[in-house]
Amino acid sequence: MKREAVVGIDVGGTRTKASLVTVEGQVLTETVTPTPPRLGERDGERLGDLAAHVVAELVQTLEEPAVLLAVGVVVPGLVDEASGIGVWSANLGWRDLDLRSAVAARVDVPVAVGHDVRAGLLAEHRLGAARAASNVLFVPLGTGLASALLTGGELVTGAPWAGEIGHVVVVPDGPPCGCGRRGCLEAVASAGAIGRRWSEATGLTGDAEEVARRAAAGEPEARRVWTEAIDALASVLAPVVAAAGTELVLVGGGLVHAGDALLVPLRAALDARVGHLGDVAVEAAALGDRAGSLGAASLALGLVGR
Ligand SMILES: [Zn+2]
Description:
CATH topology of the largest domain: Nucleotidyltransferase, domain 5
Family: Belongs to the ROK (NagC/XylR) family.
Helix content: 25-40%
Bound molecules: zinc ion
Pfam family, one: ROK
Strand order of the largest sheet: 3-2-1-4-8
Protein name: ROK family protein
InterPro entries: ATPase_NBD, ROK
């Protein structure tokens, strides 16, 4: 009997990651491919082509053929999961695009559409660092900055802007943000912003990990940029933690490679704000950049009742 499987696809601003997973949850093969530019143009035709290409590539690498039951696609930005509509993505260039139809027209199986960060939290909850927790705030810190919330073991979907904490203003008239406004959390505390702000202040080039190293070594400009980022992040996370009864703040994305240089001061900054309310743990996510595609596969499995 042929094995039954699903494919989870995580469409990022620059890279698209995909996983082929059996209905028993075994990851058989994975792939990473560049995300084509202007993906949102031509009514989602390019997105459909990308999904079909990725699925074909994964299926080809299998030693034994499998029956494809469903596909899950997760994207950044504002997503209406119920209707499968990509409401808005600045990076991928769409507004009100019917993602589900665009992909389903090419892959010929049922398609689930989700938000990349919520799907990542789903994967961390089922397979990763949030397995033992039911009240979790997941914050991947990378080029951008968004969040996802699990309360009572259930993902909070809310309105399409759920999780978009990166565009909460933390410094009025602060640094410009990709969304067109100024002083958003993403423009102060994302990995991209940390490297950029330090480079602007010093004339040197370096990424956020470099800033973390220099901050730990006591360099004043690096310390200033790093501390401002952590304080801004804690100031936005703390009210969410208090409102939602969060027990675990799970930090993911590229910046988590900074390790204790990030986790220790973030723990302290959150503790200073909400520590008297209860025990809030701050930990590193476990699945790295596979969380999105594994979460997308979970959505696909859910679609076929697995
Ligand atoms: Zn913004």
